Fold this protein.
Amino acid sequence: MIPSVLPTYNRAPLHFVKGEGCWLTEEDGRRFLDLGSGIAVNALGHANPELVKALTDQAGKLWHVSNLYEIPNQQALADKLVETSFADTVFFTNSGTESCELAVKMARKYWYEKGQPDKTTILTFEGCFHGRSSAAIAASGSEKMVKGFGPVLGGFKTLPWGDHDALHAAIDETVGAILIEPVQGEGGIRTLPDQCLKGLRALCDEKGILLILDEVQCGVGRTGRLFAHEWAGVEPDIMMVAKGIGGGFPLGAVLAKEEAAFGMTAGTHGSTYGGNPLGCAVGKTVMDIVSDPEFLEGVRVRAGLLRQKLEGLVAAHPDVFEGVRGNGLMLGLKCKLPNVDVVKAGYDAEVITVPAADNIVRLLPPLNISEDEIGEAFKRLDAAASAVTTVSA
C-alpha cells in the first residue's frame, strides 16, 4: 500500500522536533549539529529570533491578500534587492523551481518582443540542477531528470562542463540565453572559475545573448559575497534566487535588469502566493542582516576556518576523502568511499551533511555558525570518517 506521503524521497529515519541556531533536536532527545541547513535554506539557523519576530509580528496583522493589491513588505524587499544588487526589478516566487520557470519565460519573451521569436534556445551545462518543473528538468538535459516525463519541453541544449569549444560551436541564430550556476550545488559543488564567468559575460555581450545566473543555492551570502557572481566582477541580465532568501520560509525571486524584463508586462506572469506579506517580512529581515558588509566579512572568516578544518580532516582520513572543493560556506568533501556511507555515519555521530553528485558530501551550515561550532563539526565529522573506515576495513 502506498504511504500517505508520496514516496519520492528516501528519507533518513530521523524525526526532528526542534531547532535552535545550528542545532536540531531529535524526538528521542539527541542533538545534531546541522551542516546542511535544510539544503542551504536556513541561512541564519533554526528559529532565529529576528526572523521569528518578523514572522510573528506580520502574522498578527495580515497573512495574504494576493498580488491584485499593493503589498508594502513586498515593495520594501524589492527595493532592498535592487539597492544591493545589479537588478532594476524583482518578481517574487515561492521556490527556486518557480524562479526558473519565470527566468525561461522572461528570456524568451524578451526576444519575441525584440522581433526575433526564433531565438528560443537556452544553453545549459552538464551537471546543472535548476529545479524539477518541466522547464527545469528539460534544462538539465540528464536522463535521470527527464526519463519517464516526456515529451520534454524543447529549446534547451546541454553542453559539457568546461568545454569552451563546444560552447562556441553551439551558438547559432537560435540561441537567446545561457543559463548557469556560478557554483553547482546538486552537481557536486563545482565552482565556475571567475575567468570563465567573465568570459561568459563577454561572450554574451559579443553575441547579443542574455546571461541567466542560477543563484538559488549559492546566493544570499553563501559564498561570502551577497551573490556569488560578485567575485568575478560581472553582472547577469537575469538571476534566480530562493533558498536562503527566506531563511526557512518558502520564498524565491527573479531579479532582472530593466532591458531584460521589458517584455514582462501586466498579465504575462503571475503568482497567487509569491511575495505574500509573511514571506516578504522574513525575506526583508534576512536581507537586512546578510547584506551587511560586516556580516559578510564574518562569513568569509568562518568559511576560511571551516575549510582549514576540512583540509585537516582530509589529511587525517586519506582512505575516505580525496579533497575539499567549493568556496565560502558552500563546501564539498570529495569522497573515495561512497558519499552516502559518510552521510549515514554522520547521523550516528550526530552531524547532518548532504550528499551531491560526483561522490560529494556537501557542507552548507548556517552563515552565522560560530567558531566553537566549527570545531565541534570537525570532531563529529572525524568520528564519522573513523566509523566509515572501520566498517570498510
The chain has two domains: 16-34+294-392, 50-290.
